[in-house]
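Review this today:
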Amino acid sequence: MRNGLTALVIGAIAYGAVVAGSGPAFAQTPTYGIGRPPTAGELKQIDIDVLPDGRGLSPGSGTASVGKDVYAARCVTCHGPTGTEGPQDVLVGGGGTLAARGGASRPVKTVGSYWPYATTLWDYVRRAMPFDHPGTLTTNEIYSVTAYVLFLNGIVGERDVLDQSSLPRIAMPNRNGFVADPRPDVPAKK
């Protein structure tokens, strides 16, 4: 038993010495002659986050009436003609189901019932949709299809114009349905 413990301690010390002394060997340095710091333009291309208050939204605009055509051409295959059919995520409906507890009723998480911010929908469409060709919609098409999905959920009107100013002001039905992060190291959002 004592020999096993001694071997374990010696092994741990040796491992620690190897790991501590190998830091520079694992770090990429200019001595390898590969890579370069990114340019400001390259950093700007990947700095595409959109916040709930609208910071990061691109200039442009759209309405549900225009978005209906974009949806029919680019979204209907996965989400169905009315956003309720699938075969992929259902986008419409689910109102009042989040409070369901057990039994036959289960929460239905859709854009209209679950998502807290309309800007998150816009950002998701821009980054990930359409599924087979993400990133191919124009900014105006993104605003328009976002407007159409919100229209299908009864959140905006068919002719309401969504843009950098109006989109963050949309009060989603579940905006206040999330619990604040209780960790002491996370600043409280107001």
